[in-house]
Amino acid sequence: MAPAEGSIRDMLAANIKRARTDRGISLSELSRLSKIGKATLSQLESGTGNPTIETVFSLSRALELPISELLDQRTAETFTVVRAADVEVLSGEGVDLRPLRRIETDDALFEIYDQQVREGSRQESLGHVGVEHTVVQDGVLLVGVGDEEVRLGPGDYVGFDASTPHSYTAVEGPVRSVLFLQHRAGEPRRDFSPH
């Protein structure tokens, strides 16, 4: 598969504007829902801002959209190869994510990411739509979900409702893992239309 056209910044700009317009909400309302400053949102929507993981997750939560609907609109192919060098990294406080694949079926939407948690770093999320699945490939990862914490090593798996606040912490060296987000078809989304 050829790399996606445009940068994450360009795709995010177009997709934020489309999602906001489709819902009939103002930039001010999106700012309130996402807890992202209006000026920052304006920059992101114009393609001049620098998106972070935290920003994308906040927008996903506020718009109740899968992250991939904000970052890409790839179409399914029968044979797909994604080269690491061809995928733009989306960075946050402690994590670097590379979106690898979006898979749609009649019943669900799946998003696959290469996730790297930097050594000694912690990445927090207030939550977003979907069910989150993580498989650790290398390193030791501390995963906090609500009031629970679990320590994972290579080959270990955790799954949870991603709308719950959660965190990832690399406790022994950097951590490399596969992040898999699952969304049910017709998952309820907030209705932004006036009542």
Automatic annotation (TrEMBL):
Keyword set includes Amino-acid biosynthesis: no
N-terminal signal peptide: none
Segments crossing the lipid bilayer: none
Keyword Metal-binding: no
InterPro entries on file: Cro/C1-type_HTH, Cupin_2, Lambda_DNA-bd_dom_sf, RmlC-like_jellyroll, RmlC_Cupin_sf, TransReg_Diox_bact_type
Domain named HTH cro/C1-type: residues: 16-70
Gene3D superfamilies: Jelly Rolls, lambda repressor-like DNA-binding domains
SUPFAM superfamilies according to UniProt: lambda repressor-like DNA-binding domains, RmlC-like cupins
Keywords: DNA-binding
Pfam families on file: Cupin_2 (PF07883), HTH_3 (PF01381)
Source taxon at top rank: Bacteria
Stored CDD domains: cupin_XRE_C, HTH_XRE
PANTHER family, per the entry: HTH-TYPE TRANSCRIPTIONAL REGULATOR, METHYLPHOSPHONATE SYNTHASE
Name the record gives this protein: XRE family transcriptional regulator
Lineage: Bacteria, Bacillati, Actinomycetota, Actinomycetes, Kitasatosporales
